[in-house]
Amino acid sequence: MIVPFAYLDQQYPDVEAYIDDIRALVKTGDFTLGKAVGRFEADFAAFCNLTEGIGLASGTDALMLSLRAVGVGPGDEVITTPQTFIATVGAIATIGARPVFCDINDELVMDPGSLERAITPRTKAIMPVHWTGTMADMPAISQIADRHGLRIVEDACHALGATADGEAPGTYGDAACFSFHPIKHINVWGDGGIVVTRKREVADQIRLLRNHGLKNRDEAIIFGLNSRLQTLQALIAQRQLATISGAIDRRIELAALYDAAFADMAPAVRIPKRGIAIRHSYAIYVALVERRDELVAFLQSKGVDAKVHYPLPIHLMEAARYLGYKEGDFPNCEAYGRETVTLPVHQFLSDEQVTYAIEQVRAFFG
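The structure assignment produced for this chain is given below.
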């Protein structure tokens, strides 16, 4: 049996409907910030129970422009975790700010205690990462931010459909950022991203920044860049948004099968702690395992497309050397990098495929 990690080849049985949308768009010539972009922005924000959505060219741009919109600039410090994709930290560095790291907790997201210890007089913002689809402890993080007068930009690229205490990303922070890269919950035919917020002033600033700072065709208020979500990509995302709730529910069902099967396998297989008040949307499913590299090779030999996300925390990468961190500074992140395995958990898998993957994990550990 084959248990694939990727699923794009299964996602478009109704591809003709997408093509029809594109044919209609071509006839209008409405390619740049077209009407479909506005419709999608409003619908996506409503899905997150927020009022403002701003479509952008990528999730990375969403992070960068959100930081700029809340006043982060050269010399400011932004605290995040080194257990994330490089884009999180790259967005901070690219706008001239300095990334500052804190450790993760047993839920594999930002540890509030480690966060507070990392704050300095130069700290301007916090960027929690809702890694794998579980939200960080946003009530605690927002209390810390309020005490220190800090802004919050949430990296929610894995967390569409996730909640903390019933609240979606963007509710506690100044803005939440999502990606439409091909491995995300909603994925377009190329790249794209969006910011959601409850703050009109933040939304207005991002809208300026994404379109060269122009307030009209001929006048710029600030210097921005070109980071508009293409109208074509908005059409693709709109169709997927209509069915995303069911897709996320299915991921949660499959993750529950893994959790139940692995519950008695510690220490060989350990499930990350699940927060009681957290709804996990499972962009990916991870477990912590012994003999990780051997297990991955075994599973792949059996047709289970296991992955590793990510073996090397960012504070140990060459790109981060100038920040001055060393091995041992963030022990939870480093242990996670040595032990994590990612198993397929998307809506196109059957119960039988996940059961087969479970059987192969159990077989490996005897």
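Interim note for the steering committee: The chain has a mean pLDDT of 97. The longest strand covers residues 52-56.
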